[in-house]
Amino acid sequence: MAKQYAWSNTERERDRLARQGEQLRPATDKLFRAAGIGPGARVLDCGSGGGDVAIIVADLVGSSGEVLGIDRDPDNVEAASRRVADLGLSHVRFETGDISVPPEGPFDAIVGRLVLMYQPDLEAVLSALADRLVAGGVMAFLEFEHMSSAGVIMSPQSPSIEQLSRWMTAGFLATGVPERVASRLPSVLRSIGLVPQPPYEVSGLVYHGADVVDHVSTLLRGLSGVLTTNGIASEDELDIDVFAERVRVECGPDPVLMVSPNLAVWAKKP
């Protein structure tokens, strides 16, 4: 895990991730279906957070399958456990743990979404996970391509959102998040003995209108602790209400914001 997790650990942050998860659900479901995850499979969900990915997998494997989600944060584990209990998903459970020391398998599939970017030693983590796969098992990950050189893609341009993008990059780098994890995945998976299965799918998130202001304000709120702790921005600069109003003025009533791409990759263990 990165030396410090960049985002806050709050119910508000879990709500943000749940909303983001709904947007990413079609791409995630498509990836897992392409990887052949189906009824009866035993699946490990890495960095399960609020349980969004585990719930997708639960639908694919059905009641004859099993889903184990692990997350380093006990609050996330508790929240995800309550959520699946409310949904009646008795074949899904969660444990506190670190994916660099995965639980005993074997698993038919190991999956995750936006989790490998927080691992400082990608090869070591994936190798440890691969040891828990059955022969013929699959790994499937959807990962964000974090690039310090990448600017935001939006219309009209907003100096405040561009500043937020720079703060995010600085916050990621300060907490040990490496660059270009997604595009490295196929080669790393091959290096640990798995066989990547192209073609790979690219997806992204697009926000429009008032959703732009809501999204960037929520991002700023979630990152504020890391930004102040690392001296990247002051508390005055991070005033959410002031920031949101500046974005409204700069963007007008009909902005569009596109977020850097996510890459969906799966590989098979011989």
Automatic annotation (TrEMBL):
Pfam families: Methyltransf_31. InterPro entries: Methyltranfer_dom, SAM-dependent_MTases_sf. This is Methyltransferase domain-containing protein. It comes from the Bacteria. Residues 39-147 form the Methyltransferase domain. Transmembrane segments: none annotated. Gene3D superfamilies: Vaccinia Virus protein VP39.
